[in-house]
Amino acid sequence: MHASVRKYKGSEVERITGEAEKEFVPIVKQVDGFGGYYMVDAGDGTLITITVAESEAAVEESVQKAADWIKGREDISPLIEGPPEVTNGEVVVSASA
Questions:
Q1: CA–CA separation, 63 vs 30, rounded Å?
Q2: How many angstroms separate the CA atoms of 68 and 71, rounded?
Q3: pTM as predicted
Q4: Residue 43 belongs to a domain
Q5: The domain that contains 54 carries what CATH number?
Q6: Exposure class string for 54-90: b at 16+ Cβ within 10 A, else e
């Protein structure tokens, strides 16, 4: 299992999260090997997204789809300050309820 953690800075967090839930989530769910997607409001205009997938390739595809979605949304891209900080890697410990 692999994961991608992306950190975004921006404004109008509620608008970004609403649009992401409505439009981006269905896109990322189509990635072969998709395991989960989470968006965290970290406060002060910071959003953290976490994507979990079966393979490194699937995680990399999710990162590309996120970038494409943001670039393609002329109403959303100006709300995000620069590119996100992206960290991808293999999940070495996991737990769930």
A1: 13
A2: 5
A3: 0.92
A4: yes
A5: 3.30.70.100
A6: eebebbbbbbebbeebbeebeebeebbeeebebeeee
Q: What is the mean pLDDT of residues 5-23?
A: 95
Distance CA 80, CA 72 (A): 13
Measured CA to CA, the distance from residue 19 to residue 13 in angstroms comes to 10
Q: Is residue 97 part of a domain?
A: no
Report the alpha-carbon distance of residue 70 to residue 44 in Å, rounded: 20
* Boundaries of domain holding 75: 2-85
Q: Count of domains in the chain?
A: 1
For the segment 40-52, what is each residue's pLDDT rounded down to a tens digit?
Answer: 999 999 999 999 9
